[in-house]
Amino acid sequence: MTEDKIAILALVRTPGVGSVTIRQLISYCGGAEKVHRSDYKKLIKIPGIGDKVARSIIAKHGWSDAEKEFEKCTKSGINLIFYTDPTYPKRLKPLYDSPVLLYSQGVIDYNAVRTVGIVGTRKVTDYGKSVTETIIRDLAPYQPLLVSGLAYGVDITAHRACLKNGLPTVGVMASGLDVIYPAAHKRTAEEMQATGGLVTENPLGTKPDFMRFPARNRIIAGLSDVTIVVESAKKGGSLITTEYAQNYHREVYAVPGNVGSLYSEGCNQLIKNNKASLFLSVEELAKDLQWVVGKSEPKAPSKYDKPEAELVFEGFTQDEGQVLAMLKKGGDMQIDEMSWQSGIHLGKLATLLLNLEFQGMVRSLPGKKYALI
């Protein structure tokens, strides 16, 4: 296991090798260690692998840095989660641009029953701060994992409100885990690790360069079933997060603000352009998402319920049978995850699910999820 982790880190540290290339290499070679044991002739035949990358891998240019980084992570209690690991967040796994490796610190349940992202301006107003604290307080009975970015303003208000109300919260960082940004939030970041923690895709020592924040925002959106924008100017990182959330088929809500308020312009525009639902209260949100208080969603009794032994899929096409079997095994599933597991293109899968809905076999749920009836 140690060698495999170092082998993965070495690929991440190899110049010219990104997430897509790493997936390609491992897919063709059968594992990270096997990539490093491959010769030039084998590597150069892999699509997308050129002479420079092949020679860098053979020369083990990233290996020394990987060994040092693995040792630092081990000493600091940082967990390395590769995308093929069973512990990799299930909400991120099916996404086309999901990180190939996560650096995680704390006791984060990435696969919590419910996850909520809260984002907003760094220049939060008194109104925005009050709304954020109220949302967190009212979310507490539903015990979601709260996801945000540890930044000034709405983010840190949300994290601190979670600590106050006993909610687990994770801060997604645009830097390495050893570079807390902003430094003023270091104490809060440490307190969060008791029930939640910190996560990033960036190696140790990475500075929070401007270009890394949009990439950070996609992870916030990907980890969240629903993203709530509390306050946002007409342009800002929060709106980038909502774009990612929409691309991932996740729910987006925006808190309305006064006409003319600089830091409500973005939220009001999202609502006006039907890019976000109007957020009025957690009670309304829970109703929309069919949440009930508790850690699991009880299955509503139905006249269609049958003992498992009687549930057969005769009379359906091969693809329909595959979808039904997947839902039978996995329970409620998002369409992106179903597409990733089955290999069926999203467009075709959407048609299959619609046909199965018409036949009374499948029902659609909030958050682009589907379940057997």
Automatic annotation (TrEMBL):
- UniProt domain Helix-hairpin-helix DNA-binding motif class: residue ranges: 9-28, 41-60
Q: Give the GO biological process terms.
A: DNA repair; DNA-mediated transformation
Q: Which InterPro entries match?
A: DprA (IPR003488), DprA_WH (IPR041614), DrpA_SLOG (IPR057666), Hlx-hairpin-Hlx_DNA-bd_motif (IPR003583), RuvA_2-like (IPR010994), WH-like_DNA-bd_sf (IPR036388)
**Which molecular-function annotations from GO does this UniProt entry contain?**
DNA binding
Give the Gene3D superfamilies listed for this entry. 3.40.50.450, Winged helix-like DNA-binding domain superfamily/Winged helix DNA-binding domain
State the family it belongs to.
Belongs to the DprA/Smf family.
Please give the PANTHER family that the UniProt record associates with this protein.
PROTEIN SMF
Listed NCBIfam families: dprA
What name does this protein carry?
DNA processing protein DprA
Organism, per UniProt? Persicitalea jodogahamensis
